[in-house]
Amino acid sequence: MIQLRVKKHLIGQQSDFDLDVSTTIETNELVALTGESGAGKTTLLRMIAGLDQPEEGEIIVDGDVWFHKNQGTSLSPQRRSIGFVFQDYALFPTMTVRGNLEYAAGKRKDPQVDELLRMVELGNLQNRYPATLSGGQQQRVALARALVRHPKILLLDEPLSALDQSMRRKLQDEILRLRMEFGLTVIFVSHDQNEIFRLASRVIYIERGKIALEGSPQETMSSRDSSLEDLCPGEITRIKQTPDGIVLLVAVGSRLVEIPVSWRQLKKIKRETVSYN
Asked: Do residues 60 and 3 touch, judged by C-beta distance below 8 A?
């Protein structure tokens, strides 16, 4: 379990504001951070990782204090059990694929490196350099490097945003598979509603440093005055009227999810393309 209570003053594009977040994230949970650009999502990830330091608060993981302002405790990033995949992957350009993983592992000829190369299907590319790889291949290297020390927490800062939809879908599946394989708690930043619905069990919507909404993808999307794209992150198969209101049945990947909507939101949908129940 991650107990998170942090505060830090940020300089915004229009005006300064305080990032002030308190929440608890359960072990093995997959949480999406979303909201407007510049709201503090990446800074929140960096504070969990120890790359930025809060001005107030505490970060406690499974009872271990990673940061506590009043106690004067702040573990270095190397002492925190995290894997971090950055938006630009941050691979070492002068190291091969294997070299990147071995550097993260802290030793050469680590059998864990061989196992990860096999898991992400990069064994035949292990002697290549990052510049010679496709975006999807670089992302898999970054994922493998983040996992080489068996972290408790995997932090992802929009790592799929530069990829086409087909590759994004494949790597979303890869993230889900690796999460199950390693028993990870995953926190990821995304603006892509399809991605959030496919991956997240809970969404934290951040607005100028504060949690504005928190809940399941269905709850948070229906609570906002969402656009049609937000409301329908997949194919609408049916509109149902229940005692509690209107519900969309939407196919997202291989899952069917129910999304409650208001009559106002329902007007944004082309009713002739769906059936009623």
From this structure: yes
DSSP string for residues in 202-248: EEEEEETTEEEEEE-HHHHHHHS---HHHH-SSEEEEEEEETTEEEE
Question: In the prediction, which pLDDT does 108 show?
Answer: 76
Place of tokens 């406690």: 60
In 86-159 the beta strands, taken as DSSP E runs, fall at 153-157
Tell me the C-alpha to C-alpha distance, in Å, between residue 130 and each of 96, 177, 199, 259.
7, 23, 27, 41
Give the contacts of 173 (CB within 8 A, at least 6 positions apart): none
Q: Residue 123 pLDDT more than 60?
A: yes
Secondary structure class of 83 (helix, strand, coil): strand
Reported as a single tens digit per residue, the pLDDT across 177-222 is: 888 888 899 999 988 877 888 888 899 999 989 999 898 887 776 6
Q: What is the C-alpha separation between 9 and 54, in angstroms, rounded?
A: 9
Distance CA 60, CA 82 (A): 13
Residues 6+ apart with CB under 8 A from 203: 31, 32, 34, 196, 213, 214, 215, 216, 217, 219, 220, 221
Please provide the size of the chain in residues.
Answer: 277
pTM (whole model) above 0.85: no
